[in-house]
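Researcher: I'd like a candidate sequence for this fold, 393 residues long. If you have to choose between options at a position, lean toward the conservative one.
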């Protein structure tokens, strides 16, 4: 049996980054960028109006409050000619400022009649004009290699004409749920059957990391299980929920061994999730998770999400534990490292409160929580004590 930290270290050591991918920018959020992105153009690429109004020569409004309108420029138009003294042009937001104009007066401060425009006040040069190249210079680095692409980066990539970028690749994941008693949600629930809660939960967690995987239910039959896992081993990651403990129908470890999966650890000194299995076959990572929902959830945060991120080349792959103050006593009474279901409140600092539960099968307790508070082996944390925790809020 290995420690919780050794288990995480072993998973990350064996998760080797996948070959790079050419990724559409709309699909790149959360991916690590594997190239420097530089702009091949200036932004804006021309002097443009920042408002709807009238393009003017600022000097004209120092002498007069009335100018003659000689046309209209919409976004995307090209104005032919040059603005001369005493003239103005109606202009829309984003349209190119015509030659000769050096300011734009907002339409709210004007009135027009018979092509004569009256202005309420004068204006200074440069007002309401976005100058060519003021946002982005040609050749400027937009994003650096190693950046994790966020939603706010997408518009910048699109603005310089990038439809695709070179990123880390997301792994292909196969998701198997074992057990003769589970049926898909929505199906008829027969006698002594339960709905498969782990499969949809893990599928939803995978989706938050950009991965689509449909849960497959595998009965406790060695032949059928071997066939299902053999097919799944073509993926980069295999997630098997249930069947990894020591019972007569916990067939997963034996089946994995028969398929040539090398076991790197099978038990971890942690609660929940002691019977956790992790092995490899070639580059494929295989996780066997105890069947209880809380153990499934914890395993995803501690081992599986870090493995996905490492395979995708992300630098921030290790599970992130923060520090908070305990709102009450944490006394898990276990010789193993404990990860206690908790409610996390963020004020001036994080406050942690234990969520009452009936063990690692308590689905409602999991639904009420948004974190796990870590308590050392055989230890306890008193009220107001500091503790490390991991959250999904």
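Model: Candidate sequence:
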């Amino acid at each position: 049996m290995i420690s919780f930290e050794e288990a995480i270290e072993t998973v990350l050591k064996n998760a080797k980054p996948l070959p790079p991918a050419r990724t559409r920018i709309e699909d790149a959020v959360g991916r690590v960028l594997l190239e420097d992105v530089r702009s091949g153009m200036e932004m804006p690429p021309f002097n443009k109006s920042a408002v709807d109004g009238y393009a003017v020569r600022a000097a004209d409004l120092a002498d007069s409050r009335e100018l003659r309108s000689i046309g209209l420029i919409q976004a995307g138009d090209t104005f032919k000619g040059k603005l001369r003294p005493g003239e103005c042009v109606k202009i829309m937001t984003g349209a190119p400022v015509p030659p000769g104009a050096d300011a734009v007066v907002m339409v709210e401060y004007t009135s027009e009649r018979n092509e004569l425009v009256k202005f309420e006040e004068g204006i200074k040069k440069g007002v309401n004009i976005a100058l060519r190249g003021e946002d982005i210079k040609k050749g400027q680095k937009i994003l650096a290699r190693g950046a994790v692409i966020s939603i706010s980066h997408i518009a910048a990539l699109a603005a310089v004409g990038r439809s695709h970028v070179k990123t880390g690749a997301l792994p292909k994941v196969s998701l198997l749920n074992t057990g003769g008693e589970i049926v898909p949600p929505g199906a008829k629930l027969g006698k002594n059957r339960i709905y498969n809660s782990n499969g949809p939960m893990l599928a939803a967690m995978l989706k938050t990391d950009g991965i689509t995987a449909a849960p497959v239910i595998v009965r406790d039959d060695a032949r059928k299980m071997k066939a299902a896992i053999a097919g799944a081993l073509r993926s980069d990651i295999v997630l098997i929920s249930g069947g990894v403990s020591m019972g007569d129908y916990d067939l997963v470890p034996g089946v994995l061994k028969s398929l040539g999966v090398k076991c790197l650890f099978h038990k971890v000194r942690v609660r929940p999730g002691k019977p956790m299995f992790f092995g490899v076959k070639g580059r494929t990572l295989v996780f066997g998770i105890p069947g209880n929902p809380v153990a499934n959830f914890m395993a995803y945060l501690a081992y599986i999400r870090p493995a996905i991120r490492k395979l995708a080349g992300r630098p921030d792959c290790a599970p992130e534990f923060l520090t908070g103050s305990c709102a009450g006593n944490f006394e898990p009474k276990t010789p193993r490292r404990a990860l206690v279901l908790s409610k996390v409140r963020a004020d001036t600092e994080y406050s942690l409160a234990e969520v009452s539960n009936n063990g690692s099968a308590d689905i409602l307790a999991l639904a009420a929580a948004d974190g796990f508070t870590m308590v050392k082996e055989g230890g306890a944390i008193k009220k107001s004590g500091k503790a490390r925790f991991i959250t999904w809020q």
